[in-house]
Amino acid sequence: MSTRGQSVVRALRDKVLDGEYAPGARLNEIEISNSLNVSRTPVRAALAILATEGLLDYVPNSGYVVRSYSVQDIEGVYAARSVLEGLAARTVAEKGISDRVRGLLHKNLAETEALLNETDWSDRLRDEWGRLNEEFHEAIFADAGNRHLSELIGKSRSIPLLKGVKFRWHDLDTLAASYSDHAELFDAIANGQGTRAEHLAREHVYQAGRRLVANWRRAGVDGASAATRRPIRKVSRAA
Amino acid sequence: MSTRGQSVVRALRDKVLDGEYAPGARLNEIEISNSLNVSRTPVRAALAILATEGLLDYVPNSGYVVRSYSVQDIEGVYAARSVLEGLAARTVAEKGISDRVRGLLHKNLAETEALLNETDWSDRLRDEWGRLNEEFHEAIFADAGNRHLSELIGKSRSIPLLKGVKFRWHDLDTLAASYSDHAELFDAIANGQGTRAEHLAREHVYQAGRRLVANWRRAGVDGASAATRRPIRKVSRAA
DNA sequence: TCTGCGAAGATTGCATCCAATCTTGCATTC
DNA sequence: GAATGCAAGATTGGATGCAATCTTCGCAGA
User: Fold this and answer.
1) What is the architecture of the domain spanning A4-67?
2) Residue-wise DSSP of A97-152
3) In chain B, which residues have their Cβ closer than 8 Å to the Cβ of A48?
4) Per-residue model confidence (pLDDT) at position A165
5) How far does B213 lie from chain A, in Å, by closest CA?
6) Residue A217: in which H helix or E strand, if any?
7) In this complex, do B149 and A80 lie within 8 Å of one another by their Cβ atoms?
8) Model pLDDT for residues B99-114, shown as the tens digit of each residue
9) Integer Cα distance of A33 and A24 in angstroms
10) Contact criterion met (CB below 8 Å) for A6 and A47
11) For strand C, which residues in window 3-42 of chain A come within 7 Å by CB?
């Protein structure tokens, strides 16, 4: 809440990531400035920043639209994320996990396991599971102590429309498998097994990506049409 | 040359990457707008973008400074780059290299080899070698067909002050070794050996990073002081 | 001499106005 | 009827003025 520009960046980023602005949607400076009660100046700054972050596409003199991701794009994102998180896991394993993160992950695993034994699997529990999953991954790559790596992973984790649909169709078996992955990964890291940790993390993220793509396809027309890149301006009529 | 803002972004980015603005240097909006003959508006937009790209540090109400990278930071950047370029190499090897890039790399290797047989090793040849090296790497990760991966590698390859000092102290033996790495990597990719290609690329980039860090340290006081992070504002006096 | 306070100067943040470009719709022409 | 050209509206790009914040420098006091 430092400057208005930063506030607008946060507000718009959340809306884009939550799908409030769907992929392909056009972002109008005046509408946004009215809805957020600021002038166009901080809005324009925020749009430029979000475009640089990769959340928006920008065409000069035309405007900004929420970037659309095809199935191939998503596969590419997860391919990159898998090697990055693999590197993070290896790094933590080889340099030694910090006591703080060891305790955090231990607690995280216990809470996740408890969650899996719940009977009524409501949306609230799903959200809680998503939070724990995020906490687990973030704790690891933060403990790698590599600022650049953290930035790259962060960029790979914030993609329009992924956040909202990410863990929506997961059945209990999938969640249990994910928990098992986490437990093994923690074991490898805690025991300094760098190569094992790297491979486990890579495979874990890879599987997550594959499930996401499968759900993406299963979502059918909605997801497909929303993910289809829509041109900002009409193509020129002259051939 | 579409909008002034984009022109300013390019101009400032080049200056930062070439070291014209040294790490830790403060960027004044008015000075820049005067030197580039534009108003503060496009300059402000450009500064925000470059900060988002990671080239500048930003402190609200204080301004922008060229981001400084410690030796640990550089090691981290190269660690990330190595796994990313490893992934790119594996991807190209497994999906099959395109004819265009196969020809390009073939030509690139021939030109590099010819360069190594030159007798008078002038600065011009050094620059030429740097260009060929860049072309080689870029051709590979571009051929992977992963937009996100390309963006991440691009971000890892544009770091303040690296461009200028990158290949300045390399002796002929080092360059020959690098050429040999490239040749082997091309062989692995062209023969569809994904794992081998990945490992070769990782090691190649890792070695490049290690050499850079060694030169960085050897540069001694200059590099060290330039790389030392300088606080933007005075620390608050009250404890 | 050093520390803390305060006022003046400098710099950034934001709002608003104008210019440039694009988009849209209609009329005209083939 | 379809395509082209033109004009009006809408939207973005840039410049400028003012407010808010920070920085710097000097001064008073311990």
Assistant:
1) Orthogonal Bundle (1.10)
2) --HHHHHHHHHHHHHHHHHHT-SS--HHHHHHHHHHHHHHHHHHHHHTT-HHHHHH
3) 5, 45, 48-49
4) 57
5) 16
6) helix A194-218
7) yes
8) 999 999 999 999 999 9
9) 20
10) no
11) 3-5, 38-42
Structural fold of domain B71-223: Four Helix Bundle (Hemerythrin (Met), subunit A) (1.20.120)
Give residue limits of the domains in chain B.
4-67, 71-223
What tens digit of pLDDT does each residue of A56-69 get?
Answer: 999 999 999 999 99
Nearest residue, CB atoms, A152 vs list B146, B147, B152: B152
* Nucleotide at minimal C1' distance from the B43 CA: D14
Tokens 């620059």 sit on residue: B127
Q: Strands of A63-66's sheet, edge to edge? A: A26-27, A63-66, A56-59
**Chain A residues in contact with B142 (beta carbon < 8 A):** none
Name, in order, each residue with C-beta under 8 angstroms of A151's C-beta and a sequence gap of 6 or more: B54, B155
CA B225 – C1' C2 distance (Å)?
29
Q: Report DSSP letters for B23-88, one per residue.
A: TT-EE-HHHHHHHHTS-HHHHHHHHHHHHHHTSEEEETTTEEEEPP--HHHHHHHHHHHHHHHHHH
Using DSSP, state whether A196 is helix, strand or coil.
helix
Per-residue pLDDT at B1: 57
pLDDT at A233 over 80: no
